[in-house]
From TrEMBL:
Residues 741-815 form the Proteasome activator complex subunit 4 C-terminal domain. InterPro entries: ARM-like, ARM-type_fold, Cyt_P450, Cyt_P450_E_grp-IV, Cyt_P450_sf, PSME4, PSME4_C. The keyword Metal-binding applies. Keywords: Heme, Iron, Membrane, Metal-binding, Monooxygenase, Oxidoreductase, Transmembrane, Transmembrane helix. Its cofactor is heme. The keyword Membrane applies. It comes from Papaver somniferum (Opium poppy). It is found in: Membrane. This is Proteasome activator complex subunit 4 C-terminal domain-containing protein.
Amino acid sequence: MRLLNYIFFLNLVIKLVFRLAGKSLLKILKRWPFMISKCVLALTENLFNPDASEHIVLGSCSILATQTVLKHLTTDLKSFSAFLLSILTSSHHESLKAQKAINELFVKYNIHFAGLSRSVFRKSGNHLDEPQFSDLVSQIASLSFDTSGLHWRYNLMANRVLLLLTMASRSDPDTSSKILSQTTGHFLQNLKSPLPQTRILASSALNTLLKESPYKIPEHDLFGDFEGNIKSSVEGSMSQIFQEEGFFSETLNSLSHVHVTTDTDGNSSRGNHAASIQNLADKSITLFYFDFSTSWPHTPSWISMHGNNTFFSNFARIFKRLIQECGMPVVSALQRALEEFSDAKERSKQCVAAEALAGVLHSDVKGLLGAWDSWIMIQLQKIILAPSVESIPEWTACIRYAVTGKGKRGTKVPLLRQKIMNCLLTPLPQTVATNVVAKRYIFLSAVLIELSPPRMPMAEIQFHDCLLVELLDNMSHSSAQVREAIGVTLSVLCSNLRLSTFTRNHSDEVGSTEGYTFKRENWDQLLTHKASELAANIQNAGQANSLESVSRDSGLSDSESQDVKWMETIFHFIISSLKSGRSSLLLNVIVDLIQPVIALQETSNKDLSTLAKASFELLKWRILPEPHLQKAVSVLLSLATDGNWRTRYATLTYLRSFMYRHFFVLSRDEKQEIWKSTEKLLTDSQVEVREHAAGVLAGLLKGGDEDLVGEFHSKAFAEAFSIQKKARKRVPSSNHSIALTHGAVLALAASVLSVPYDMPSWLPEHVTLLARFIGEPSPIRSTVMKAVAEFRRTHADTWSIQKDSFNEEQLEVVYMRLLKKANEWYNERSLGDKRFLLPPGDMGLPIFGNMFSFLRAFKSGNPDRFISNFVKRFNRIGMYKAYMFGSPTILITTPETCRQVLMDEERFKPGWPKAANELMGRKSFIAIPYEEHKRLRRITAAPVNGHEALSVYLTYIEETVVSTLDKWSHMWEIEFLTHLRKLTFRIITYIFLSSEGNPVVEALEKEYTHLNYGVRAMAINYPGFAYYKALKARKKLVVILQTVLDERREKRARLGESPKKDMMDNLINVEDENGIKLTDEDIIDILIMYLNAGHESSGHITMWATAFLQANPECFKKAKAEQEEIVRNRSPTQKGLTLKGNSANGLSFSGMQHTVVDETLRVVSISSVVFREALTDIKMNGYLIPKGWKVQVWFRTVHMDPEVYPNPKEFNPSRWDSVMPWNDLAKLEIMIFLHHFLLNYQLERTNPDCKLMYLPHPRPKDNCLARVRRVSVL
């Protein structure tokens, strides 16, 4: 014992070792059980003691919660009493951890409680101080009444313990009656408790304890003379309580607060009301609300009009069992309170009144029929006629509870069921509001749900018959709310009739309806025939009177308005039937109503259409068994050919779900008929129907019959291919209607979309053929674009593998044609109908346009292929639309048209690409407006190309050429073009900047190489693109030239003008007629332009002229003879060439040498194209050039045209019979070079057949690798 006390001390006092001490203590208690009682008494003292520290309480709870101690409590009353009382009186502990430990101890006790040993109930005479079980119950009962001094949680614990003890006492007959009587009265009084948690537990306890029901009439004597003399053991104590003045008023008021709590929390509960007052903090305590009764209702209601009620069936059950325990005195005591609360304005009070009345109506006690006649029926009639609508869900639940069948299967008829049904069937006064009428039908639907059709007696059958007549006669009621209630009630009633008929036809049970004739025996035929007739009338009226803008009832005749209302009721009937679990009983009616449901999807009456759509959504997923399936197919096939396109559209929507749900039920013939009907709708006159039919077919193809699918694929491809073939050949008889062509395209689209992630062998051909229709007008074009875009999306993840199924041509069609047409639409959309006047052509891909094909042609060695593709595709018309260098463009390719564009300076202006404008400068000739262009041309002509300026440079050019040719002749192989470019650039920089030999020349030449590559590129300023490098080169060129210009101006200001002038000096000095001089920007941009020409054009032309002459001996011989003649005619005193008139000391500008240069320009086409922009809309050759569009004049196409120049690829200077005189600087350089080359040198090319490059200018890939050989010295 000392060891036990020491360990006990360690467990409670020394915090660090209490767990180890607790384990040791448990081992001792298991070894010596007689010590448990003393241990429990000692530990419970710590819970009683308000001064006990936190760790002492925690240690005590840990030991008391063990299975060993809890098991001992069931046999030791003294320990058991101490244990319970210590928990229930321990609310004084302030520590949260201590309170949590006590709560967990209580929860564990509840979990492990399994009753008490009989020894606990025996009275002990040996020890007078030992507690008695009845005393323990009394003590706990007193604690459960303490609502002010005890925390609600502990009050709830006390009531919970009291219920457990009462249930446990049933095993002892000596104490059971007394304790049961005491505790039931206690819980009855607790229904008025101010604590909502206690009220809830009290209701649960009463439903558990009230089981005797001595006043309940047995089923076999339901309408007999049942006396019921045996009294309940609890009747005496409970009668004293409920007969107190105002008891039930106070009780109902307290119970109504539970509804207020529920409404506030937003919870709706049907029986499981504990959830309305529990929270997370107290979940462990409120978890032990329980109910041993079956849940109600047995089957949930699908009727939305019944609402989300707060009707607590547990409360109704309390009043029912209280009446069955104590008889009619309870009913009498309840009357006054029920009448008061039924008329209350607060919904919570009406809710609890509905629960109490439901218990009264369902109690089936002796004397209840008398109370019905005296006041209950009157009260029910008041409830029906009451105008309030907020509590309709609760009163509906009350009615439903009152007529609910009794017994395990709910087949036993309650005493007042027929009385209630007759009361509800009584017609209402004519003056009542429509919401009261609707409420009555809602109550009737609740009654019908609870009836058992297979066992209905004759009175209930007659009730159905009378109500059916009333419903059918009122289907066109003026109130929408009433019509909805009628439709719902009718669906329940008709399903009851069908279920009753079916059951009686298959059973031998009593209650046969033989000999009874229904007033509306053919109600199903009446509904379906009238619905079809009225649906047709509504459609015809809508089409004839154009009711789209007419509101619901206004503008309609009385008969038309009645038709609409009747159909709304039918739709409510369909919706309710399909939502219920009885729809199979009404399938023959529902199938006959498919036609009105689909036909009235879109009407002038929005409410009617909304109900039709709601019916449609429920109906389309209903599986129809074989007897009804054929009829449904027949109805759908007829609807597919309906004259109203909206009906055809809705039919397609229904067919999609119908085929999916009935795939394994439909016969092959039925599938084929549906398939053919859907295919016909692909060519419907309404585009919405056509597109929807394609979507439906795409779904059917995914899982349809293999034979039908294969046949459809083949047929779709063949029809589309035939249309496309005739369109390509421009067959006059191929003028298919838009609908037929669109239908063929939609069939292809359906095939493509039916395999979203697969790649069957037929798919590439279908996709390619579909993409070929992109050029068709809308809506065909939009269909193609959507279908191809969806194909690309669904095959994106596996495209790297699946693309191998396509050949190169198919890939181009699928991917390029769609994008090209999109680009075409984007650039032409602003033109409106004028776009039809555009010349034919191809605008390429978005952003890039035709640049890819342009670059591909020029890099392939056959640059003429670019234009020849247009000619091949669109014939030789001389004008084509395209998208070049970021702009919509018209390509001009014939001589006459080119001449018109170039000569028309009023309607065309320079229109170079953005890259050229940016790189050459905004003040260069190609970028400035037309007037400014003429001004700069006028004032710079003399300084740059004038006779005086050229005479100044002639000697320098000649000396430089002579020395350079001599230098080359002493070299081995050289890149002839590269050295020529350096030569011409040195000349041009000297002429403009006087910078011969200057390091500036090398810096300029390096940057000009990069600049030139970007002039004819797209303006993409991103690393890696030519324009990006060229733009950087221009910035450097501007810096260099600005530095030179600043130094020149500073030198002129300091020293004055030098007698030796270059072009820069001339540009600084020149001024127009108004005395305006060029700005620095003007000068720099002009210099950049001329230097670029001198760097590129002169060098390339010289190289090609030399190569062509060397490759054509006859031409070379004639040209050389001409130059030799010039030398022979030269004056003996003249050492070089001079510029006089049209000759340069015998150097003729109109002889063989000139024709060589012109033929070189033609064959090589250094400038393949010239850019213009239309200043206004221009019609040319029958086609439109829109304002703002670019125009490209293709010299190369004209130069290579065999109709203009026979054998255009042949170098033939003789084709130039006459030439125009010219004297510009660039040609002067070429003429001087050719003069000295022809006299003294020959060119020996290393690779005469070297392949050519055409960008930025035509040149051999090896830059004309050759050797310059001297042949004579003159």
